[in-house]
Amino acid sequence: MELLDKIGKKATKTYKVTAEKTSKLAKETKLKIAMSMNKSNISDLYEEIGKKVYEKYIREEKIEIKEELLELCAQIDILASEIEEARAEILHLKDRKQCFHCFYEMDIDAHFCPNCGIKQTKEEEIRENQEKQEEDEKKIEENKELVEESKRKETQISGKEKTSKDVEENIELEDDEIV
Ligand SMILES: [Zn+2]
Predict the structure, then answer these.
(1) Is the pLDDT higher at 65 or at 7?
(2) Are 42 and 76 a contacting pair, CB within 8 Å?
(3) Which of 16, 34, 113, 163 registers the highest number of CB atoms within 10 A of its CB?
(4) Domain limits of the chain?
(5) Can you give the pTM of this predicted structure?
(6) Within a 13 Å sphere around the CA of 73, how many CA atoms are in the beta-carbon half?
């Protein structure tokens, strides 16, 4: 009876481990599918960006695409960060983690990165993320300024076009005078 009990317990334990493994594998598969979907969405966005740039080239700079490009790039940023999150989750499932600073892979319990030596604590990570966020916000502000600036330049260019036409007319007049 005792032996049977033992076998029973062992079987339950093995079953639990297997079930855990299976659910981990299922999670990993789901994450990998999500990652590859995001990657293909990013490729589509790259294609769209390419089309926009080509369209601008064909139409000889007469269209403003900067804002659209920023929008598309922002979408890529979001998808890329989702890919990064999924990658981190997959690592976590394998009891591994990535250094928040240099992205080196290490054991989930490691306190220091074996590659760059940075301490792997939540506080450090939060601090680094805050710095990154501030940098990103600065970049967004700079991009907004770029858009504003290109709009200003656009107005200046259309102004210049008029002037060069005026110059042409003036030249024609001068030619008439010579004749
Ligand atoms: Zn590191």
Answers:
(1) 65
(2) yes
(3) 113
(4) 1-94, 119-179
(5) 0.59
(6) 11
